[in-house]
Each structure stands twice: as structure tokens, then as C-alpha cells.
Amino acid sequence: MTRIESVDIFRVIAIVAVIVIHTTPFEVDIITANPTYNYLDLIFSHLSRFAVPFFFVISGYFWGAKVRNESNPVPSSLFMSKRILIIFFAWCFIYLLPLNYTSIYEYGVFGTIYEHGLLGTTKLFYWKLIKVIQEPVILLMQGTKVHLWFLVGMLWALFITTVFVHKKQIKLLVIFSIALYLFGVLAKSYINTPLGINVEFNTRNGPFFSTLLFVTGYFLSGKAITTKWLTYGFIVFCVGTALHSIEIYILWAVFETPTHQDFVFGTYFMGVGVAMAALSNHPSLKSKFFSKIGQMTLGIYAVHLLFVNLLWPIDKATDSILWEIGYVIAVLSLSIITTHILSKNKILNKIVV
Q1: Could you tell me which residue, 29 or 318, shows the higher pLDDT?
Q2: CA atoms of 336 and 227, how far apart (whole Å)
Q3: Cα 172-1-236 angle, rounded to 5 deg
Q4: pTM here?
Q5: Distance CA 41, CA 32 (A)
Q6: Please, which pLDDT band fits residue 321 given cuts at 50, 70 and 90?
Q7: Do residues 219 and 170 make contact, with C-beta atoms less than 8 angstroms apart?
Q8: What is the torsional sign of CA 318, 322, 327, 333?
Q9: Which pLDDT belongs to residue 117?
Q10: 192 phi and psi, to 5 degrees?
Q11: Cα separation of 230 and 150, whole Å?
């Protein structure tokens, strides 16, 4: 399948947004410490929420574009699942290693050696392994690091969509995916409202949000795309952003819900809008340089939290606008370099591309 250069460019924008979410620039511990930082924190955080939904939609689009010409979607889905599982389990193991700063005891590799001696890193690995064994559901639904939930969500979405498409039950697929998203929102960001549903797990993990977005991508793969989608996508994104912001404000002001939420109803339209713009393949969206980086986003996504955690002590000790932006740039740059190096190895490239 011919690559759509504009999609790769938007992938770069989206991966920067993911890094912004995890580095939390301008976030302060005390709400009244710096009002300007508070506003910037909210703006950066919420404008970045399109990123993960965008990745789900785009994945559904390319899967749909491939299986629409096949009588049986199962072989393509099995190939895609195998690729995701290799990346998931490889990085689950890597994140068990004492390479990153944050751990059960917040020491990291150097702090652990200082506190527990030369065998401290071995102890840290053991502690993290025991924690995983004691919480197998978290391992299966999220992995050993919080951001790996995306890969699990992708597997769920792929499995559910494949089953319904193979059975030619498209209407039921739409209804089921909408129901999952509705349940996910009511059991997470809307939990403090009268409509809230109290459950004992995080509905961000699993099929609840990923399925509808993936299915939307599948439907987009059957549409005739034109350059006008850049405008249409921008409009959908703006509507979604407005709805997302209004929801967050009401949830915070009326129901005392924290403002940093992964998904509300408007978030869906943010992701879909950006995906439509990306698929437009508009002549203005051409860049060989950014397109090459865009092809590495899966690896960048997998590796970036290593550098988020390694640089976290500097972030905690620094109060500077330059650092708040520099933190994002440093994590992005180190992640790109690492992904590029790993991709050059015949074995290691399987965990980044």
C-alpha cells in the first residue's frame, strides 16, 4: 500500500502530543503557585488529547483499506496481532529492567544502588516482577508501563472488529462499539455524575475507547477521500475540542472531577477530525524529513517513557519555561535517535517498526 505522506506528518504531531501528555509541561504541584503555568498546563494537556484517538483511527483505516479487498480479514488481523504482541511483550520486559527513574520506591537505578548497594538493581527488578505477578490483570490490560495500554487496546479493537466484519455484522459492530465507548466514559470521567458507573478497573484499558475509534477508521477506508478532508477534518477537530473543553469544565466545576481526563465524548471527534485532515493528502502537507520520522512513531511511542522517567529528576528540580519546552524536545529527540538505532538491527527492529 502506498504511504500517505500527510499521515506520517500528522503522526509526528501526534507523537509530540503524547510526549506532552506524559512530560506534563507547566504542571505545578500547588494550584495557586503560578496561575500562568496552570492555564498553560490545561491548554497543552487538553489540546494533546487528540493523539491516541488519532492513532486508533488511522490504524483502523489502514487495516480496513487492506481487508476490504480480501474475502477473509482473519489472516491480515493475525499478522497485525503478531506484530503488536511482539512489541508489547518486548517492551513489557524492558520496562521491568531498572533502567528508568521511577520505581516502586522512586529510586531508579542510581538511587537504588545508593540505597541498597550494588545488588540494588537486581532487587529492583525482583520487586517490579513480584508486583506484576501479584497483579496479573494489570499486566494483561496495561503491561508493565502505563502507556503500553495503547497496544492492548489496539489488540482488543482489532479482535472485535475482525469478528464482526468476518461475520458481516457491521450494524451490530457499530452499536457494540458505541456502547463500549459510552460505558467507558460513564465509568471513568463521568463517574462522579448521576450517570456515573462505578467499576473496579480503569476503562481506559481494554476495548472501551479503542474499538469505536478503530471502527471509525475502518469506515473511513471505504470513503472517497479528497483534499477537502483537510478542511472537514479541521472543523470536526474544532467542534470536538470545544465539546471536550466544555465537558471537562462542567465535570470540574459541578462534580469536582479532576481536569486531566483521557477521554470524554468530545475527545472522539478530536481524534477523528485530525485523522480526516491527515488522510486528505493535501499538497501543502508534504515533507520527506517529517515523513521519515512519522514512520518511526510506534517505536518512539514505546521507548519515550524511558527518557521521560530518566529526565524526571531534572524536571522536578527546574522551574523554567525553557525547560518545560526543552523537556519535550529532549524526550522526543532521544526517542527518535534510539528508535533509529534499534531499527537498524535485524532483530531489534521488530520491537520498534
Answers
A1: 318
A2: 30
A3: 55
A4: 0.91
A5: 13
A6: confident
A7: no
A8: negative
A9: 54
A10: -85, -5
A11: 26
